Amino acid sequence: MTTNADPLEIQKFSELAHRWWDPTSEFRPLHDINPLRLEWINARAPLAGKNVIDIGCGGGILAESMARKGAKVTGIDLSQKALKVADLHSLESGVEVRYKLIAAEDMAAEEAGQYDVVTCMEMLEHVPDPAAIVRAAATLVKPGGHVFFSTINRNAKAYLFAVVGAEYVLRMLPRGTHDYAKFITPAELSGFVRQAELQVDGLKGLTYNPLTKIYSLNQDTGVNYMVACSKPVA
Question: What is the distance of C-alpha 77 from the center of its chain?
Fold first, then answer.
């Protein structure tokens, strides 16, 4: 198995896996932003009837929501506990998703060019080699297909909001959820995308208002941001 993973990161999320579908838990931010990211993806790459893979799917919040849009969804992750939670929730909800314990790079070797849409959200900042994940996503997607990433910018504002604010002040996330050194600037991510022979089609910021407790999509990529890419047809 490919080892582009931090065992401590996998353990961290595995220990919280049983709380993945509790919208009042540490995963509340994922529940809150999911409708925004889902609609952004669906607007750019209508999901109905598409073959989709979600890299780093965790407990399946995004994967299930894409399946509800009519996509045939595969979710992959390296946390066995998170995948068990995802499988159980899929059975309870009746929303069919195929889950698999496998690294993105190994999946790319098995199912290259099989997917219309590839998503990898809130994961790149948790792995040792994010560029390798981007290359795997580029391998998995069909020519003419779409790839979506989301991650956290690396600057003073991102440190203040995503680490100090979210983990220590507002306590929205457990302390130690994020490692500032692993944050990725839009320029760096765009470089990984181009090196993987994908093209950048759009960039969107995701911000949180602590007063209203509402997330919104806008052009502010200073902290959280999403990137839409596509694979040119040869």
Answer: 11
56 is in an annotated binding site: yes
98 is in an annotated binding site: no
Q: 221: helix, coil or strand?
A: coil
CA dist 23 to 10, 61, 172, Å? 21, 11, 12
Structure tokens at 77: 């992750």
Average the pLDDT over 202-211 and give the result: 90
Quote the CA–CA distance of 2 and 193 in Å, as a whole number: 20
Secondary structure element (H or E) that encloses residue 55, with its range: strand 51-55
To the question of whether residue 1 is assigned a binding role by annotation, the answer is: no
Q: Which of 7-11, 17-21, 99-103, 142-146 has the lowest mean pLDDT?
A: 7-11
Percentage above 90 pLDDT, the chain: 74
Domains and CATH numbers, the chain: 7-230 (3.40.50.150)
Which residues touch 183 (CB under 8 Å, ≥6 apart)? 125, 151, 152, 153, 154, 158, 159, 162
Candidate from 4-18, 62-76, 166-180, 193-207 with smallest mean pLDDT: 166-180
Instruction: Evaluate whether 59 touches 97 at the Cβ level (below 8 Å).
Output: no
77 annotated to bind ligand: yes
Could you report the per-residue pLDDT of 144-199, keeping only the tens digit for each?
Answer: 999 999 999 999 888 887 777 666 555 666 676 778 889 999 999 999 999 999 99
| CA–CA dist 51, 122 (Å, integer) | 21
